[in-house]
User: Fold this.
Amino acid sequence: MRSLKADLTTAAVGTAAVVLCAASLALYGAARVYLVSELDQRVAAVTQLVASSIELENGRLEMEFEGLHITELSPVAGKGFFEITLDDQLLVRTPHDAGMPPGLDGAPPDRACWIDLGGGTWARGYVRAWSLPDATGPRMRVSLAVDASGPLAALNALAVSLIAVGTVALAVLVLAMRLVVARSLRPVIALGQSLRARETGGLADDMDTAGVTEELRPVIAEVNVLLARVRQTLDRERAFSANAAHELRTPLAGLLTTLEVAQSSPKLHPDAKPTLDRCLTVSRQLKQMVDALMHLARLENGRDRYLPAEIDLADEANKTWEQIRKQSTDEKHFEIRQQTAELAPAWAEPLLVRLVLRNVLCNAAHHVDDGGWVAITSASDPAGASITIENTGSLVSEDDVTRVFEPFWRGDAARSLTGLNAGLGLSLARRAAERCGGSITASSQAGGNFKVVISLPSPSGHI
Assistant:
């Protein structure tokens, strides 16, 4: 996954590294030009000084070098070269075993050049050629090569220093840029955390732009527009749920009354009684779901007060299971494993808790396989209480387990055997659990076991 922090740090450090390298190369180049220029000026000055010390008097060539005190002309073998010729006839030469260094013999006059003295020693060469006064034809030529080891060593030392300083500066720059980028991205991270922390009930207010950097204001403005659209969608959904539930209450009440009257009729045929009993059970369960939908809609719209109280989650689970067992007409045989604590105190709305437990337990009882088992386990700690409901025979895969709380989602054909299994039970259970300040999670385990964990907060601090 790409990281904005890493991208910004890489871009900043890369740009700084390019600038640092360019500055180092420019500094090295300027130092080299300066040192070579100084060396060239010195070589040219020495050559001119030597040339000015050669005179032709009365047909004799006189050279006065004793008072010059030129260090470049010291006869140190391999460290420099000095030669004077007259019409290619050697007059004076500094002791040098190898003779004239290559490159100096054919060097153009009055122009400095690099000369290899051998043994890794480089020199700066210069040639001065001119015709003697009162002479016809003879030409003097002064060839000079001055050791450049000192300036080159200084340049090498400068290069090493620049590399060392650049490396340290780049390392410091990487750390500094990471800190700067991390600090600069704090508003973005805070924005993400604020959005992540918002729940459905926290969408009523727009995000505040106070104290936000100028670059993030357009982003927050667009997020607020999106939040407004989400609020409108949720309001329409809640209004539809409330209206649908309200409209269903009257026909359901009439249906229940008709079924109850038919059930109590002495003319009821015995063969029709099981079917009528099942229809009555389904209708009662459907009425309970409609009532719960209306209650949730009133809570979410603020039209009904949320009245939490201290409850015993283990006791509520046992009572709910007994009701389901008595009302069940399913012919499947399975084992019920109850391991509930003596007391599992929680703080929640009792009606919503019963809705959660009924939906989850009905889901487990419906999907357990014949001969399988349903386990109900409760636990309690200072943070709150939890109920774990697990059943065998599940056909929900591990990839689809996160979708079981989506409205109208059904993982297999078995979930649509009756009118009640429309994919609303677990979705409604999650909304009710979250409304109580708790949570509900599901997992699918190997062997076809489906587990749901309901957690509710502790009454501590509420009483």
